[in-house]
Amino acid sequence: MNVSAGSIESSDIKIVIEEGHAAMQCMNMVPELTDRQVYEYVVPILKQYGLADLSPQIWFNGANEWVIRSRCEALAYSLNPVNQREGVTG
Amino acid sequence: MSVAAEPLVYFYVPGYKPNYIEYAMTFYPMNIILCLEDGTPEEKKLEARYVVKNALQEFSSDSEHTLIVRVNSVHTPHWEQDLEELVPERPARIRLPMVRTAEDLRQVERKVQDVIHQRSLNYSPSYEVMIECCEAIFNLGEIHQASQNIYAFTFGGTDYFDDCVAKGLVDPALEVRKAKQKLGEYCRSVGLQCFDTTYMAYRDLEGFREDCLLSREYGFTGRSVIHPDQVAVVQDIYGISIA
Amino acid sequence: MFTTYRLELPEPVTLNKLQIPVFTHMFLQNVSAHKVQVDPIQGKRISVTYLSSYPREQIEREVAIFLERFTPEHDEASASSAEILEPELNMVELDEPPLEKLCSCCTPGNQRNISDDLLEQRWLTLLKNQELAYHRPIITLLEYFDQSYVDYVGRRIGDCQQRQYSVLLPASFAEKMNYFHSAPMHLLLATHLSHDHETMKSFAADVSANNGKLPQDCGPYLETPPYILQSAPCYKVYMEMEDQVFEDNTAFVLKGQSFRNEGKRVYLLERLLNFTMREFVFLGTPEYVTRMRDLTLGWTIEWMEAAGLKGECALANDPFFLPGKVKQNFKVPKHVKYEVRADIPYKNDTISIASYDTHGDFFAKTFNFRLRDNAETWSGCIGLGLERVVWSFLQQYGLQSEHWPAAIPESVK
């Protein structure tokens, strides 16, 4: 199942989970952060929602933690087979 | 959560846009309506729900704003899920769109009470009931009697206009004015707050000012806005009582 | 990860809508902040967002220094407004173009932001450091709008001399027109290592010691930049014309890259460090240059209407060529710049996609070119930002080509 949540707008994060995507990919859109910093910030939150092992593609544009959580929560809800009557955008 | 903001200006923010929410929380010290209904496109309903849920958590200790959530109407597939996720976050008020009958409101009340009991919440809900169709104006008294928790009535001008068009009424704009007048008079007679609809032509501040003056005469006590330029006009006009 | 705090702007600074983008841009160039936002209601407060790992005292210090300098009476760099220059220039009142008529009234069908779709549907790929890869649909649209603009406007202008130049503008040429005063925050410089053998060796050793990374302070190894990356392709026309006398009013057509250091404001096709510009340049009598202004603005609006692009013409306040310090008495129009702005429906806003600058005799005097029989020679140019045309078109109609205006040929869809 392919799902995505969020956007690449400022202060947001976009997370796409596509079947067949080989590995996690993290695109940092914040010039003053290193890719490593973004990875260390985002991945622990993805793990809490069981998303880190699904090879997500991530575009990070300065989202605060509450925003990342909201995007993860939406994705986790969508990926739960019980809830698949109502898909997330994608 | 504080409910300190003056009950005049109600700033709509689309629920699916966290950057807009953060911006509003930074610069608009007033009532913020996190909108899951018309402000959120259909394909973004689910993710908006979680943005709003997390925003309510994030800003729970904020003292400058009153956070109101506009959920989807009972005539959509989204409203129950909205309430299940958002009632536990105890929004200051819940704005209910397209309440046509007393039963619509009772349905919401039952669902909210279910969530409160299931989660053992310490929460007293408070509603802003939106009047947006001819049927609702006809049922106004019954709707009011259906709940003890109505904080205010609000008017939804665009949907009311569309309803008049759908019913084939000759002069929908006149019908909208008559409905606003009736709603304003009713609220004034029972001592209830009453908030007017948004004014979409936000660049036309003169037209907005005139519309606000008329609305205040009808009995409206505050107004929803969609643009920062409209804030000062609302504060200026509704801040002065004509009683 | 981020911390945000608010503060009041010092009295008597209040930012109006035109000043906010300038303020924001300069703030982010000068302060180590991730984001700055201005209170949209009164323009009296700002919020500053910075990396939480950065010391708060340091940020506050940087903000205080910036705000002190930004106070308008101390701020020469913000001389984007002609008002500051007014006393030093000989202002000429010209008839204004009919702005109220210069409006392309189309009905775009898309209200959603297409940014995410561009990435998801792989029309664009975001590379590291905010770089972009354009894929075929974007390339096709860039080519199409460029060609259709040249066909529409170029044909009406008539005989145009074609030019193609490199992106490098010699620093000595830029110095001559006081270029470095005008908008230093936008400068991108092109330089190279010193030719001195010892310096080269020392540089290589420094890189090796730094695990292949550039030394933190490259300055000692570099020559004073012999070139800048041009901020507009038309400069090269004035360079080519230096010391020339020409017979008649002349038009040039050229396409080139423009470079502007937009810092942290870079965002997809909306704001790029370098973008493609199609330009027409006019040299000749004041009447000719002014007439071409009115005609090309009108034709640009007609072209937009034909393509379905909604927008309008407006007076702008940031001429690209006027230096901060004026040494000669130049004759320039009171209003030197007009913009063509296209609607961006999802945010109820517009962006500039083209601009017409009337330089008066600024370039002619600075570079000593003139008409044979006329004492007075003026120049003017219209530049169309192609990436922004594509951006606004897609924002107005979305990515599904079946929803595009009928005027867009099948071969482009």
| Structural class estimated from helices and strands of chain B | alpha/beta
Report the average pLDDT across residues of chain B: 92
Number of domains of chain C: 3
Oligomer: heterotrimer
Q: Determine the strand fraction of chain B and express it as a percent band.
A: 15-25%
Amount of helix of chain C = 25-40%
- For the largest sheet of chain B, list the strands in their spatial order: 1-2-3-4-5-6-7-8
For the record, the CATH class of the largest domain in chain C is: Alpha Beta
The strands making up the biggest β-sheet of chain C line up spatially as 5-15-17-18-20-14-13-8
Beta-strand content estimate of chain C = 15-25%
What general form of chain C does the structure show?
globular
Compressed to H and E, one letter per element, the order of chain B equals: EHEHEHEHEHHEHHEHEH
Number of helices of chain B: 10
CATH topology of the largest domain in chain C: BirA Bifunctional Protein, domain 2
Describe the main β-sheet of chain C briefly.
8 strands, mixed
Mean pLDDT of chain C: 88
Q: Which SSEs are present, and which pair or pack?
A:
The complex is a heterotrimer of chains A (90), B (243) and C (413).
Chain A (H helix, E strand, L loop, with lengths): L2 E4 L5 E6 L7 E4 L6 H14 L8 E5 L3 H15 L11
Parallel strand pairs in A: 3-4
Antiparallel strand pairs in A: 1-2, 2-4
Chain B lengths: L8 E6 L3 H10 L3 E5 L9 H14 L7 E5 L8 H8 L6 E4 L5 H17 L8 E5 L2 H5 L1 H6 L4 E6 L1 H10 L5 H19 L2 E4 L8 H14 L3 E4 L5 H8 L5
Parallel strand pairs in B: 1-2, 1-8, 2-3, 3-4, 4-5, 5-6, 6-7, 7-8
Helix pairs in contact in B: 7-8, 8-9, 9-10
Chain C lengths: L1 E7 L10 H12 L4 E4 L6 E7 L4 H15 L11 H4 L4 E3 L10 E2 L10 H6 L3 E3 L5 E3 L1 H22 L3 E3 L4 E3 H6 L2 H4 L6 E2 L6 H13 L17 E3 L5 H6 L4 E2 L3 E10 L14 E11 L1 H22 L3 E5 L15 E3 L3 E8 L4 E12 L1 H5 L3 E2 L6 E8 H12 L16
Helix pairs in contact in C: 5-10, 5-12
Main location (chain A): cytoplasm
Subcellular location (chain A): Cytoplasm
Keywords (chain A): Cytoplasm, Lyase, Phosphoprotein
Write a structural description.
The complex is a heterotrimer of chains A (90), B (243) and C (413). In chain A, a hairpin with a 5-residue loop joins β1 (3-6) and β2. Chain A has helices spanning 35-48, 65-79; strands at residues 3-6, 12-17, 25-28, 57-61. Chain A has one domain (3-83). Chain A is globular. Chain A starts with a strand and ends in an 11-residue tail after the last helix. The mean pLDDT of chain A is 89. Chain A has 2 helices and 4 strands, in the order βββαβα. Chain B has a single domain (8-238), classed as Phosphoenolpyruvate-binding domains (TIM Barrel, Alpha-Beta Barrel), CATH 3.20.20. In chain B, α2 (45-58) links the parallel β2 and β3 (66-70). In chain B, 46% of the residues lie in helices and 16% in strands. Chain B is built from 10 helices and 8 strands. Chain B is of the alpha/beta class and 243 residues long. Chain C has 3 domains: 2-86, Alpha-Beta Plaits, CATH 3.30.70; 89-183 and 231-403, BirA Bifunctional Protein, domain 2 (2-Layer Sandwich); 192-221, no CATH class. Chain C is built from 12 helices and 20 strands. Chain C has an 8-stranded mixed sheet. A 3-stranded antiparallel sheet of chain C has the order 1-3-2, with helices on one face. In chain C, strands 9-11-10 form a 3-stranded antiparallel sheet. In chain C, β6 and β7 form a beta hairpin. The longest helix of chain C is centred in the middle third of the chain and has 22 residues, at 136-157. Chain C is globular, with a radius of gyration of 23 Å. Classes of the chains: A alpha+beta (90), B alpha/beta (243), C alpha+beta (413). Chains in contact: A-B, A-C, B-C. At the A-C interface, α1 of A face α4 of C.
